[in-house]
Amino acid sequence: MSSLTYIRKGSVDERLYQKNIAAAASSESTLVVLPTGLGKTVIALLVIDNLLASGSGKILFMAPTRPLVEQHFSFLKEKLVLPEGDIVMVTGETSPERRNEFWQQARIYVATPQVVQNDMMAGICDISRFSLLIFDECHRARGDYSYVPISKKYSDKNPGGLVLGMTASPGSDLSAVEEICNALAIKHIEVRTEDDPDVEPYVQDTVLKWVDVELSPELAAIASALRMMLAERIEKLKNLQVLPMESQGSVRDLLQVSRELSLRLSSGVRNRALFDSMRIQSEAMKIAHAVDMAETQSVYALRRFWQKLISDAGSSSSRAASFIVNDRNFQAVTTLIDTARSEHPKVSRLREIIQQQLRNMPQSRIMVFTQFRDTAEMVQKNLQEVPGVRPVKLIGQGRRGEDRGLKQAEQKEVVNEFSSGRANVLISTSVGEEGLDITSTDAVIFYEPVPSEIRLIQRRGRTGRLRAGKVFVLVTRGTKDEGFYYSSKRKERMMKFSLLGLNQKLREGSAIIPPTRRQKSLYEF
């Protein structure tokens, strides 16, 4: 590995594991799996410096969102000593005329993959002129995502070109990881965890604590009544022979029923039994969601969902909603929901944890992750009543009914409030897991566990970067919370073993999965 030729002197720390990984990634196409906060972008910087020093061609650094692209662009501008105009940012906000000019002149490009794909198709971005493609958050490189056709075109036009894929977690499923490696033409994997000897000196202690919560009698009664309604739908689906008799009626089973019914419909089947099955499956999914709201979320979120169900039934926009509202047990359940006097016990535990953290460390930054926007709104309103707590809410851009979401500029303002200290608690949906430059926190609280090891790692990585951190996971006893918690932990343990095994298979040349016929057609442009 060369000396730091183009990197501004003193602008990066000397970390052995980063140098070692960058050295490997500078010689062959590499997947880098590194926990959040341990400097994947610095590794990319070191690889870029090596490529620049060798006199190779252009470099393309891609990230899934514009805020993340802006973050990487600023980082490279700050760290690299290059003439003005050698580093450019290309996003959907850049006009086609400017993009055409940019693609001809610069040496390093930081861009969103959708723009790159569009400009390749338009003929203004010649991918063969690049010597290095960097794919940030490369676990997205599956199916139809833009990373996949870009990499395919690149490997066709420039077989000797380097690829650097970076992620905190590609997932525990070996076939899915193989798909990512195949999509990006990866030949080598560099994986590190907090326990590796060359990483351990740079890792801050992070304490993970499972916080048991007992469901209140009120919510237990609501959940029980909802489960009775759900059981009736499950029994009907079994009688219609679309759900196995041994099934417990899990959401996974119901989703499988939906897929099978959709296949029947697309094959031309049209009969009363099929349409009844589709409606009943939809009813079951809605009621199962209500059960989850009662057991793991909040009375506020459950009421919002129940009101929407009534509204949909009244407007005839959903046959399933109409049948639920006309159910003989519907009014009794509605009364239970409307007369519930207390919130989910998770809310009081959340307040206790935050108050204790602020008593111990008054300058703390705390991040709360929630699955649903309604829960995020409820948590924000509740925390506003707590002395010393200054909460802000971070949600995605998409519209959810009357909730229009936050534009990217609004998201950045919320993050700035948190980073500057004007707010000390950031309540976020999944939008806060990746793609936004959020300052390191002293504590992360999961309002509910997530079944995905990728999301577990991303959320947990928001703390323990600069100093010791804490992670609290609120788990309602006897609910799907427990299953999700164990599932994500098990998958995380499996991930490193899978990656080490896959690395060996890549060496042996036996881990290549051919693209599907549908994927091949997408790549032809």
From TrEMBL:
PROSITE patterns: HELICASE_ATP_BIND_1 (PS51192), HELICASE_CTER (PS51194). Residues 21-188 form the Helicase ATP-binding domain. This is DEAD/DEAH box helicase family protein. Keywords: ATP-binding, Helicase, Hydrolase, Nucleotide-binding. GO terms for molecular function: ATP binding; catalytic activity, acting on DNA; helicase activity; hydrolase activity; nucleic acid binding. Transmembrane segments: none annotated. Residues 353-521 form the Helicase C-terminal domain.
